[in-house]
Amino acid sequence: MPPAQSLHRTVDDLYSDHHGWLLGWMRRRLNGGAHADDLAQDTFVRILSKPDAIAIREPRAFLTTIAQRVLANHYRRQDIERAWLETLGALPESSVPSPEMQAMGLETLLEIARRLDGLPRVVRRAFLLSQLDGLGHAAIAEELRVSITTVKRYIVRAGQQCYFPED
Questions:
Q1: pTM of the complete model
Q2: Would you place residue 54 in the very low, low, confident or very high pLDDT band (cuts 50, 70, 90)?
Q3: Domain 3-94's class?
């Protein structure tokens, strides 16, 4: 049997045996929230997107680990959307971007957050202090108790992580 068929068969079995349990797990975490179905489905989509075959000894522990990541991403997205909507709400009506530009702005923010997520906390903090708070290198160095050279290195590293090459 080709590896792809083996993987799908394993995921099929995992899905049929544990989807109901995972859905209940998600509903408890979301207090019966409407997103539970989607997030349970996203958990299985993540498994399908893995290129390697999976060998699972403890299926519920495996699913819980992936589902916790899916749930964390869901909450992070909600926080970013809320902050974006608050920012838009504070703009004068004449400055509010079109719905298309609002959607593009939100997707860009979500992508930047995803890219920054893989960086050490201090690197993210230096970058955000620079980009969002407008602090200079010396002020960031003082805030983080590191050298100015280190701050510059952090900002370059985070900037490279956020770089969007042109298609």
A1: 0.71
A2: low
A3: mainly alpha
